[in-house]
Amino acid sequence: MQKLYIEATSTTPRIVFEPDEGKLMLSGRSMPEDSDAFYLPVFSWLEEYTASPKEHTELVFNFEYYNSATLRCVLELMSILKNIKEPNTLKIIWYYEDGDESSQENGEDLQYTINFPIELRVLEP
Q1: Class of residue 66 by CB neighbours under 10 A (exposed 0-12, middle 13-18, buried 19+)
Q2: Integer angstrom CA distances of residue 65 from 32, 44, 55, 112
Q3: What is the DSSP letter of 123?
Q4: Which H helix or E strand runs over 122?
Q5: DSSP 62-121
Q6: Amino acid 23: pLDDT
Q7: What DSSP letter does each residue of 19-68 carry, written as one string?
Q8: H or E element that contains 14
Q9: Model confidence at 46, in pLDDT bands (50, 70, 90)?
Q10: How many Cα atoms occupy the beta-carbon half-sphere of 1 within 13 Å?
Q11: Of 34, 102, 113, 120, whose CB neighbour count within 10 A is largest?
């Protein structure tokens, strides 16, 4: 399976998925004009990955800023990956800035919505 790499722009996040390592990272700003179109290749890549995942998969979100359309796409990403079956494991990490209650609450809401534990971490200064 090929690595997925999408370079960040002023409105889209950097996306690096290393299938050989089971690491999936999204970082930066995410407010694409058409979130569904932007994230569609990512959904497809994840569907392929979940057919034969690594023993341990880690999904990391480190958004500087994101809009509500991105949150819908993030929910879809998490929903696809939470279908990874045992004995394989999935770890989801949601970073937020200290004091950013909205982002912290979004991480908590996502956890509740997908009924899967999400590790909430405060970004180090």
Answers
A1: buried
A2: 11, 24, 31, 21
A3: P
A4: strand 118-122
A5: EEEEE-HHHHHHHHHHHHHHTTPPTTSEEEEEEEE-TT-HHHHHHHHHHHHHHTS-EEEE
A6: 96
A7: TTTTEEEEEEEE--TTHHHHHHHHHHHHHHHHHS--SEEEEEEEEEEE-H
A8: strand 14-18
A9: very high
A10: 20
A11: 120
The arrangement of strands across the sheet holding 14-18 comes to: 4-6, 14-18, 23-30, 56-66, 89-96, 118-122
Closest by alpha carbon to 80, among 59, 105, 94, 108?
59
Q: Residue written as tokens 């057919």?
A: 51
Residue 125 confidence class, pLDDT cut points 50, 70, 90: confident
pLDDT in tens, 16-32: 999 999 999 999 999 99
In this structure, are residues 119 and 93 in contact, taking their beta carbons and an 8 Å threshold?
Answer: yes
